[in-house]
Amino acid sequence: NAGVTQTPKFQVLKTGQSMTLQCAQDMNHNSMYWYRQDPGMGLRLIYYSASEGTTDKGEVPNGYNVSRLNKREFSLRLESAAPSQTSVYFCASSGHQTSTSNQPQHFGDGTRLSIL
Amino acid sequence: GNSVTQMEGPVTLSEEAFLTINCTYTATGYPSLFWYVQYPGEGLQLLLKATKADDKGSNKGFEATYRKETTSFHLEKGSVQVSDSAVYFCALSANYKLSFGAGTTVTVRA
Question: Which of these ranges, A87-91, B64-68, B91-95, has the smallest mean pLDDT?
Answer without folding.
Answer: B91-95
